[in-house]
Amino acid sequence: MPFPSTAEALMKLVEYLLHALQDQAARRRISPACRPILLLKYSHLEA
Prior knowledge:
By secondary structure, this protein is mainly α. The chain has one domain. The chain is built from three helices and no strands.
């Protein structure tokens, strides 16, 4: 594997995004166009 732990890096990124989405200020920083894209990616990961 080229990376130490790709899965661990992805989980940390998802965790960071989830924390950011819970923050009102961060929620305002995310453009409305990006929200559906994030939701599609999350639903794909959960499926």
